[in-house]
């Protein structure tokens, strides 16, 4: 009896805390510290990103890709610090959407949620299809279709069907599977790093060699090494995001005000450190540093040349697990954003999308809808793989825009005196006033610079002709579609929280109308 009392007190405090923000506890609080960290870490998933994109980045930057990794890690850490502070103040499901709602206007919050939702569901498709890299290399039985594009679609579809079922079953099932997967990925990453380090036959000075990249890169004039660094940075930028997932699961996390900030920073820190070690030891151990060979073979070629095919297949099995739990975590985050927006009636059919099942305490409808849309996006790959590449490549740009729609409004609030001396929760993560302005400004500056770098029309990234403008066109289309819907259905709407999600106390704060910090 005495052991249960503290848990009950903490749980009741979490419910009361959520009610202050206008919401009733409908999801189950099953996640502890490791589960919260694991959700964010598996979204980042360095093994998935490295095996899918190492060759892509190396083809542009050569060994300089190591410095790109550190630059992006630093920039994203500034963003993560801002998110960590917001997660301590606003422990509400939906992360980016809810944080933007608390610090900006309704319109900005809606676009933050909309862009994050679109970017996330596209990313589900992009990651699921990566199973084609690992599974057929492990066993020929996974090569169901002789056509590579068709087989990638088949494996990706099966993956999304399974992750959708898991998400329908609820966060408890999801977290157990994800925790096992993350443990396997962490173990696999450590084993790979150690084995590559043992087989190293170059020194760490390899990262200052260029292997011919740099001055003279076609179309870049005399900008020197800036060109390969800008192009190569796209690889780590594609990998190191999604750490806000811990915030998306705040309503399912125990003591989220303290647990979530740590999970966000730890997930990015661990992933960033492991990725840097993996990069440098791969470069120190691989037999050849030739641009053409490594850009074509990627990290699988490194493992095969250094460790042999048998051990390489074992490690590829671990990569396949990492890809699966990465897909699972991304879809889970997507579902929580859709759920959070829907209960504020920010999406069509809000009541239905926000409904939580009584047995599993799961938002089942957005799980199914996100799965169906992700599979539909994958099917584009059968008809035109180049269009699929453009769409999935632009997903990260859209997510960066969503992040900016949080970090920029927060910076504006800070310059106006936020947080006030009386608005500092005791013993919670905080950047402080002066330090917060500097770190927040760095987060915004990095976000703007990287967004421009990612969307800039280049044939080297998106293809020739009209495809070179694929990034600009896709981002513009997402913003225009979102803008039209907002003006038609959201701008003048009285946004009430869905009845199912209002606090039981009808006199409680924000019991009826979703709170916002500013007007439209």
Q: Could you give the topology of this structure?
A:
Layout (H helix, E strand, L loop, with lengths): L3 H17 L12 H12 L1 H16 L3 H25 L6 H8 L2 H23 L2 H8 L9 H22 L1 H28 L27 H7 L1 H6 L5 H4 L7 H30 L5 H17 L1 H35 L6 H4 L10 H20 L1 H31 L18 H22 L3 H4 L7 H21 L30
Helix pairs in contact: 2-9, 2-13, 2-15, 3-10, 3-14, 4-13, 4-19, 5-6, 5-18, 6-8, 6-15, 6-17, 6-18, 6-21, 7-15, 8-9, 8-15, 8-17, 9-13, 9-15, 14-15, 15-17, 17-18, 18-19, 18-21
Question: If you had to describe this structure to a student in words, what would you say it looks like?
Answer:
This protein is an all-alpha fold. It has helices at about 5-20, 35-45, 45-60, 65-90, 95-105, 105-130, 130-140, 150-170, 170-200, 225-230, 235-240, 245-250, 255-285, 290-305, 310-345, 350-355, 365-385, 385-415, 435-455, 460, 470-490. It has a single domain (about 30-490), classed as Amino acid/polyamine transporter I (Up-down Bundle), CATH 1.20.1740.10. The chain is built from 21 helices and no strands. Helix 18 packs antiparallel against helix 19 (about 435-455). The protein is globular, with a radius of gyration of 23 Å.
General form: globular
Order of helices and strands: HHHHHHHHHHHHHHHHHHHHH
Mind telling me which CATH architecture this is?
A: Up-down Bundle
Number of strands: 0
For the record, the count of structural domains works out to 1
Stretches with pLDDT under 50, minimum 5 residues: 1-5, 506-520
Q: Give the DSSP E fraction (strand runs of 2 or more residues).
A: under 5%
Question: Pairing-aware structural class of the strands and helices?
Answer: mainly alpha
What's the N-to-C terminus distance?
50 Å
Which bin fits the share of residues in helices?
A: 55-70%
Rg, Cα atoms, Å = 23 Å
Would you identify the CATH H-level superfamily?
A: Amino acid/polyamine transporter I
Determine the number of helices (DSSP H or I, runs of at least 4 residues).
21
